[in-house]
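Worked Example 4.2. Read the sequence first, then its C-alpha cells.
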Amino acid sequence: MALETITIQERIIEKFGNSASNFGMQKDIFCFEITPDKVYEVIQFLKTESELNFHFLTDLAGIHYPDNDINEQFAVSYQLHNWIENVRIRVKTFLNGENPETKSIIDLFQCSNWMEREAWDFYGINFIGHPQLKRILNMDEMISHPMRKEFPMEDSGRTDKDDRFFGRTSLIKN
C-alpha cells in the first residue's frame, strides 16, 4: 500500500500535536511546519518510523524573511525522501531573528554536515551540536553572513566595473 500524505499528517499530529501545523501540498511535495524545539525529534521520527521510512536527506537550506515578525525571521527547510515509496516531504521550522538557532541533525544524516555549515556561513543560523560549524565557502575573516537580506547585493565601493555596461543606466552618454 502506497504511503499517503494523510497517513503522514495523522502520524505527525498523533506524535507531535500542536507543534506541527500548516500541512499541505506545494508543487507536488507534502509540506508542514514544526516548532524549533521539536524539529530534531520530527526528523528523527520521519527517519526511524518504519511506516514512514524517510531515510534520505535531499536538502537542508536556510531562508531569511526580514519582513516577518522577529520570531519568524529565519527558517530552515529540510527535504526528505522515502525511496521505497518515492515520496518527498518538506519540513520547515521558523527561527528567532535575534538568535537563529536549532539543533543539528548531523547524527541522523551525516550529509547535513556541509548543508548546516552552508546555512551558518550564509545566514548565521547556529546548529547546536554541530562538530565543526565554520565557514565553508566564504573567507574565515568575514564577519557578516552575505545571504541575509539586510546586506546590499553589491559592494558600493567597487571601482572595477562600470554599471553602464550592465544595463543599469537608462541613458548612456558618449
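Now turn to a second chain, presented in exactly the same format:
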Amino acid sequence: MIYLDNAASSWPKPPQVVKSMEEVLLNYAANPGRSGHQLAAKAAEKIFETRARIAKLFHVKNPNDIVFTQNATESTNLALKGFLKPGDHVLTTSLEHNSIRRPLEFLKAKGVEVTYLNIHTGKDLHADLLEQSFRENTKLVAVTHASNVTGTILPIEMIGEITSRHGIRLLVDASQTAGFCSIDVDSMKIDLLAFTGHKSLYGPQGTGGLYVHPELDLVPLLHGGTGGYSELIDQPPIRPERFESGTRNTVGIAGLGAGVNFIEQTGLQQIQQHEQQLANYLVDELAAIPSIAVYGWEKNEFQCPIVSFAVEGFDANEIGFILDAHYQIAVRAGLHCSPLAHDSLGTSEQGGLVRVSFGYFNSEEDVKELVHALKDIIN
C-alpha cells in the first residue's frame, strides 16, 4: 500500500513511537497521579516528560500550560466553549475545519456572534480585512494555521500582532502545522494553540492538546477526578489538573513524546524540505496532464505538503475508490470536513477534491506510482 493520506493521520510511525508505547504497556501501565506507588509515579513522570517536550517545541515557558486532550477537536471545543460567552463576537475564516466551525455554530445558537472571512489563500487575509472586521465586542480570532484542503498557510505572526494590539485573544488550530512548521507561541502572540498528536507530530491517534496562555482562564470542558485535590467539590484551580479530568492516555502520550523526539532528532528543516520537494514534484507532474486541475498550490510559497486536485469527468470519491481498490494507493477524497473551504474554491458541487498529503516516509517513487495510476485511469 502506498499511503498518501498523512494530513488525516501520519503513517507509518517512527519505530521509537511503537517502542515507547510498548514499554509503557509492558512495564508501568498504572494510573498516573492516582496512586503513590512507583508504577503510578513512573507513568506520571512519562506524561510530564512529554508535556515538557511539547512545551519546548512550541516555546512554551511553563509545561503545565500544555493541556492533554484526545485530539485537536477536543482542544478547540475546550478553547471555544471555555472562553466565549453570549454576546461575544468571534472572527474566523472560510478555511476552517469542522472542528472549529461546528463548535462555533453551536455557540452561535447560544448567543455568540460569528463572522466568517471568505478567503482562498493565506495572502487573502491581510491586515485591513482583519481590522475592518473587528467590532466592539470582538473577543477572539479563531483560525487554522494551514488549510487541510490546500495546505495554504495563514500569516499567524501578522494576525497575532494585530489581535494583541487590540486586546483580542488568538486561537490557532495547528492540526496541519504542528511538527511541520516552527511555532513560537510568544513571538506569534498565540493565546490558545490546539494541536493533534497523530499527524505531523507522528504520535498515535487519541492524543492531542491545547496550549493555554498563563493569563487566560477557561471554563473546563470536563469535570471529574483529577487524581489530587479530591477534597475539593469544584475543579482544582491549578494547571493542568483543572482541564484534565479522568485518566490520561499514558500509552498514547508516551508515543506522542517519542514522535516529538523523532522530529527533534530529524530536524524541522529537513522534514519541510523533503515533504515540500515531493509536493512540488507531484504538482509538476500533474500540470502535464490536461484533464487534471490542481487547486490552491502556489509553488513559490511555503505551504504544507498537501496537493488537492480534480480529474475532469470523474467524481473525486470515484478517483479515491479506484486508486485504493485497483492500485493500492491511499488518498483522501471529498470535502475533507471543510465544506466552507470547498465553497470558496467552487468545488463543493463536484463532490470536493482528491487530496494527496505527504509525510516524511514518502518517496519520489510513491509520486511516480500515483501519476502512473492517474494516467491509467484517465486513459
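Notes for the reader: Residues 6 and 359 are 6 Å apart (CA to CA). The chain has eleven helices and 13 strands.
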